[in-house]
Automatic annotation (TrEMBL):
Main localization of the protein described in the UniProt heading: membrane
Location(s) in or outside the cell: Membrane
GO MF annotation: an example: transmembrane transporter activity
Chain segments carrying region Disordered: 255-284
Stated name of the protein: Di-/tricarboxylate transporter
Family annotation (InterPro entries): SLC13A/DASS
PANTHER family hit by this protein: SOLUTE CARRIER FAMILY 13 MEMBER
Species assigned in the record: Natrinema pellirubrum (strain DSM 15624 / CIP 106293 / JCM 10476 / NCIMB 786 / 157)
Pfam families attached to this UniProt entry: Na_sulph_symp (PF00939)
One GO CC annotation: plasma membrane
Amino acid sequence: MDDRIDERSGVELPAPSWQTAGLFAAVGVLVVGTALDSPSALSVEGQRTLAVFLSALVLWLTRPVPYVISSVLSVTLLFVLGAVDSFGAATTGFTSTLVFFLLLLLLLGDATASVGLDQRLAGQLLTAESTPRRALRSVAGSVLALALVMPSAMARAVTFVPIVKRLAGAFDTEDGFESAAFLILGHVNPIASMALMTGGGMALVTAEIVSTSVGPITWVDWAVLMVPPTVLLYALAALAAGLFARVDGETTVSTTRVPRTEAGDDGLQLRTDGDETRPTPEDGLATLTRDQRLVAVVLLGAVAAWIGGSFVGLPTVVPAVAAVTVLSLPSVGVITADDIADVNWGIIFLIGAMLSILDAMNATGAITAVVDALTRLIPFAALSNWQIAAVLIALAVAIRVLFSTGSAAIVVALPIVLEFASSFGIDRLPLALTVLLVVGSTTILPFNTTAVLVSMDRGPLSHRDIAAFGLVTMALSIAVAALSWLVYWPLVR
């Protein structure tokens, strides 16, 4: 039977046969894990927690039921099976700041899109250049700039699809511009979300785990550590996209030939070289609607509060709460009940459930038992620190390939990686940031990243293109992370 597409997220769902197999596998894992006698190195509570963890992973990977249902089921099983003492102890992850912060950022990102501010910003940033190579640079730079105000890579991809279609229609030659542009929208675009702590789910999850396991990290701390490596990685990946698709830098085209295609018939005007009517910044602000100006001012205020709050100890969630509250006021009405209903609750519940399970694994000693078991299988004691780090990063990448979102992969892999790092005396902060850079840049299968699914659906990319360029971005992320670990991060810490 054919695969299905989730209409809300655009994510390709496994075929029903796989969903049925996954459901039976999850039940089997749970039954076996709770029925067998626990080994001496693991308590009964720890064994049952591991059984719930593995069962939840199977459900999340095969998706026989929505994420919300499987997540609620998982935390309920922690309590019912006696892995924890109370239902409150089974749901500790849902009281994490991360869950609420992610919800608030999703609402702010949706507000940016709902008032059309994203398209207005894209139109102001993007210029229809005279060669495919210059146009590609313009697209890449504009996507990076828009990432500062829109923490959703998929939303950015959807915003730029019609723009890329319009630009591609201006070039007669098979120059590779469209393929390269869709590689940027799919593979390179999510990299921009890692620059700021508030840039998206992957950064938020990593920051929360770092704050819990390593030490406090502020918005400014994150920016200092991550903006230069992220921008460097983004630039290298964008350059690689042009080389990968062999974009022509010689063919010229009159800017008046930039067509309005069916996909781009959205009223969005691109600036052109030599255009005497090019709007000035003042004109651009004056032409914004009331709602667009309100959202722009509120977002700028939130960013300023995050920066200032880093120096006075203001929790990062507070500016986000204030911003969402202002945009929800009756006199403003930008964020409505419909917007809240349309939030991707599945990923929020998945992260809350995974954090709850991790808390239970720590409390019952299950995570320590997992680390000990892996240590017996892999001769970590015979490896140097960099070799151990390489093995841990490879483990994180292997977990990443299984998941449809980087956030879910990180919330599963990073605590285990940091537990190993603590056991072997490896500096955990640069290791955590390295895991983020590599996991966030690795897309081997189309379903690994929703932005890639969008770009593959709308553009000329094949499965082979997706996998091949995913390996390229992964290799670049490893190189940038190694350079940062050896040179940059020691200078700024």
